[in-house]
């Protein structure tokens, strides 16, 4: 049995070698113009479109994988940045727990984005391209079978034209021609049915791929935008916390200096006397209290800039003099906040319409 197997394999090998030699000879004769070649322009156009489709699909797959690699790199960089913030954020600072939570949510968002891109785009793209190697191999096989068909056709024609008619050889050549034609036509018919369908399928791939990517990106950036806005709000409040602490410290220092200067002036011979009950007091800016509306309680001087964050607040610059007014409803007054109007506005317009609230610790009483 082993000897028979060896004989069969040897015979098949010899047959394959002979087919290659015959095909090579046929191709040479066709190139030299000594043998005609069967042409199918419509099929060649389908093959050209197939090659373009394969090249486009391969490029799309390559670029998409590069995009996924970039997403993964961005995820790693984002995680390191968020971790850095979480590590250096002092526990007593505003929003410490929220900062840690945002770092975790950001990491999960990147993970989901990458995995969804793989599931919804890369896998379908890989499945689409997986069918091309088989079809490409069958196109190459068709080309070989076409050469075999042309070779059998030429061989049959040459025997028929021979001076000596050998009916057995003619019958054998005709049988070989019929078999070669059948094999070629079968594979040719299959490819003519499949190639146009495959060509049309590229539209579905492009639509699904880019719709998936666009939708996933839109959702990712929307969710990431919310996290970034939360983080920005926390940073804003942290800065406000810092400024508030700085304002309290500076105001306390200013009051201590004022008290020291007051004690020093009292100890001197030129210390001013307190005005009598009915005496008009002198104001520090050269104008008298008699010129001011009776509703003014006292004056303060802004020690620091304060940017109004609401329409009912007063915008201050360091050095501004403010006339402090009582609240119409004492219950509306929050601790640490005063109501007033800038002295410059009163001197210019003689009205109190531009009044607003401001933090007391940003000012010093005059």
Describe the overall structure.
The chain has 366 residues and is of the alpha+beta class. It has six helices and five strands, in the order αααααβββαββ. Strands 4-3-2-1-5 form a five-stranded antiparallel beta sheet. About 7% of the residues have low confidence.
How would you summarize the topology of this molecule?
Blueprint: H1 2-32, H2 41-88, H3 96-130, H4 132-160, H5 167-267, E1 298-302, E2 321-325, E3 337-342, H6 343-349, E4 356-359, E5 363-365
Antiparallel strand pairs: 1-2, 1-5, 2-3, 3-4
Helix pairs in contact: 1-4, 2-3, 2-5, 3-5, 4-5
Brief summary of the model shown:
The chain is of the alpha+beta class. It is 69% helix and 6% strand. The chain has helices spanning 2-32, 41-88, 96-130, 132-160, 167-267, 343-349, and strands spanning 298-302, 321-325, 337-342, 356-359, 363-365.
Average pLDDT taken over every residue: 83
Distance between the termini: 120 Å
Question: How many strand segments?
Answer: 5
Structural class: alpha+beta
Helix amount, in percent?
55-70%
> How are the strands of the biggest sheet laid out side by side?
4-3-2-1-5
**Approximate shape:** rod-shaped
Query: What does the largest sheet look like?
Result: 5 strands, antiparallel
Instruction: Please count the helical segments.
Output: 6
Keywords, please?
alpha+beta, 6 helices, 6% strand, 5 strands, 69% helix, five-stranded antiparallel β-sheet, rod-shaped, 366 residues
